[in-house]
Amino acid sequence: MSPETPSTPLVPEQRLRRLEDPVGDFPFYNGAPTAISTRQWLWVLTAVVAGFLVLVAPIHWPGGALGALIPALLFPLIPLAAMAQVVPGHWKAIFGKVGGRELRLMWGFALLNIVVSMGIGAIVSALTDVTSNAAAQLLSQSDTAERIGFFAKTLPQLFGEELLTLLPFLALMQLLTLRFGFGRRRALIAAWLLSSMLFGLIHLPTYGWNLVQCIVVIGSARMVLTLPWILTKNIWVSTGAHIINDWLLFGAGLLAASLMAAA
């Protein structure tokens, strides 16, 4: 199938059974709602990298706490702008409605991810050295205004992390099905694994370049956070699960630090 070929209806055998809703499919990889060429995907992925580099670059942004929001906002806006340029009128296909079911899924997958990541983290830490997230320690040493700024910054930043994971996911789906002849299910699983590995690798500087921790622990957590996307094809659901997950973990760490300080 070429990128210009219209998509065909999915049969049940092409889905991951209970991991996917029975209707709807991922956008773009199969020419629906519109096609994205290889060159266009390269442009979008370049924008994803550019957004990430803006986020992590050691730039002193003016404006204090508000200025700190600039790179966090540019992180998702740059790839979204590239998508809007490549597929004008169709870039919203990665979004969906948010209702009661979607909110329940956000909470459910966030809690599932905490259980999974803590379990895998405990196993890995028993076998090898692991590095803690420095952001948790900095948060415990911050004042109230800085903490509010931190949690506000995570909203666009975590949305950007979803784009950084799921846009390559779609590009991989197209590459694997069109160029390598993978069936949809096989391509989905490969894109899920590879995009999760990519997510783990970008966290290497955060966790002291600990490859095992980033691939096994962070990569496994990313696989769980990608599940709501696979289920619903709605980036809001995976973003919501990601935000709830991180806020609960950082909030619990902050509470523990406060209790220890008061003891």
Short description:
The chain has 263 residues and is mostly helical.
Task: Report on the architecture of this protein.
The protein is mainly alpha-helical and 263 residues long. It has one domain (12-262). 68% of the residues lie in helices and 0% in strands. The protein is built from 9 helices and no strands. The chain has helices spanning 38-56, 64-67, 69-86, 100-127, 134-140, 144-179, 184-201, 211-232, 235-262. Helix 4 (100-127) packs across helix 9 (235-262) and helix 8 (211-232) crosses helix 9 (235-262). 32% of the residues are buried. Mean pLDDT is 91; it is low at 1-7.
- Put simply, the count of helices is 9
Major sheet characteristics: none
How far do the termini sit from each other? 65 Å
User: What is the count of structural domains?
Assistant: 1
**H and E string:** HHHHHHHHH
- State the oligomer: single chain
Q: State the secondary-structure class.
A: mainly alpha
Mean pLDDT: 91
As a whole number of angstroms, the C-alpha radius of gyration is 19 Å
Total beta strands: 0
Low-confidence stretches: 1-7
Instruction: Please report which band the strand proportion falls in: under 5%, 5-15%, 15-25%, 25-35%, 35-45% or over 45%.
Output: under 5%
Mass-distribution shape: globular
Helix content: 55-70%
